[in-house]
């Protein structure tokens, strides 16, 4: 790369600095489909200790992308406020937007799964309450059929809840002190890796897995948070990261990281419990993986074409990705009896295609009938709230003192 090209890239405004980033929407679609594929692979008996079995099983690392995306998008305004004179986001408005984004569609799928999916024993009251409140990772044996993937949504909701507190915790690192924000965040991520050992020492009831708690996944969120700090910092900072954040460099490196995670170093791909060091290594590498996949998208110069990730089909799948994620296990559970397929006995491709097609259809309906109407209602409510808010009175104008030469002599 020429010196001119490098300097132009370093000084250009990053694509992820503000506003909507089309490539991230496409990447969100990829993550949702990867989660779907790892579940169809498991349910058709393809996940195991062969090389393909490990690869399919480790498609669950797509959750690191979801968490990294959340960290980046939700932290970006806080980072911008720290590096400039911009205002920090209003906490109340933030919480309302998160609740409306997640809960309406989620409650619908939870009720459908709990009430309609066939199971040997009906769900208990505690299972209903835990799933409807997204606290199932803390309640024994409440990850139930059609909703087992929701452990990650439970983790994400707790992250949403605590994010404003985390912003306050580093709130003094503003202006010149903002340069310490990334080191502090990386230190927090590194310390969180000890949860693999600390969590194992916590006495918990049977049926509760500390691996599914937020402390495990801090590195995955921090990957996105650090990217938010970098795109918000002046162009003169983090120059090396900005120059290296190219797809041709980062994505092959991400493939290598993913390959390492697929080995026994990343722990078992089945439901067996990993060794603490394996789990810690997988969490750390998951953060690196998310960073490498997202960095070229958010640090690219604004206006650079998003190519296929920003294409019409990928943007549509990205809009529907939340619905794909929350509905696909309900769809998968229904696919087996409807098409006379025996679980764990093959038909991986057939089951995957059927699950994807029906999940996309249901997700599109969920977006059109539930998610988008709820978002629009909130937008109208926020507009009315802003219109009704009293306008601060202008400060009174103090009279100018007379010029020195016109002051009357005393005495």
Automatic annotation (TrEMBL):
Entry annotated with the keyword Nucleus: no
Organism of provenance: Tsukamurella pulmonis
Transmembrane segment boundaries: 59-78, 99-117, 150-170, 182-205, 217-237, 249-267, 279-299, 320-341, 347-370
GO MF annotation list: acyltransferase activity, transferring groups other than amino-acyl groups; hydrolase activity
One GO location term (cellular component): membrane
Keyword Transmembrane: yes
InterPro entries in the record: Acyl_transf_3_dom, Acyltransferase_3
Alphabetically ordered keywords of this record: Acyltransferase, Hydrolase, Membrane, Transferase, Transmembrane, Transmembrane helix
Organism superkingdom: Bacteria
Residue ranges annotated for the Acyltransferase domain, each copy included: 22-363
Any Pfam family hit: Acyl_transf_3
Identification of the protein by name: Peptidoglycan/LPS O-acetylase OafA/YrhL, contains acyltransferase and SGNH-hydrolase domains
Annotated stretches, region: Disordered: 388-411
GO biological process, one term: lipopolysaccharide biosynthetic process
